[in-house]
Amino acid sequence: MNFRSLDELWAFYMSQHSKPSTRRWHFAGTLTALLILISSIIFAWWVIFFVPIFGYGLAWYSHFFVEGNVPATFGHPIWSLMCDFKMFGLMLTGRMDREIKRLGKRPVLQVF
């Protein structure tokens, strides 16, 4: 799919993250990647190698085994990373449900 703007991709991106557990896996991956990045700056530079492994690994796990789709990273790597940070920020500030409703999506009820 071709998108002309980040806003167009954002609506698609959210449709690919419809399950709360998918978003939680993304949150965990982004948080872990950020903590590893900080650790690599403070303690040892070679630890930076683990940033994409944990960041993408946890997110991709959620797409393949929870959501059942292909990560947007494969088609739009930079924009999907930007969308991931936006989703992370919305979740961190408790505004994710409001954004889902704004986009006309209903949260999917799920145990995990």
From TrEMBL:
Entry keyword annotation includes Cell division: no
Lineage: superkingdom: Eukaryota
Pfam families in the cross-refs: Mpo1-like
Keywords, ordered alphabetically: Membrane, Transmembrane, Transmembrane helix
Regions that span the bilayer: 25-58, 78-96
Protein name as annotated: DUF962 domain-containing protein
Protein's organism: Stephania yunnanensis
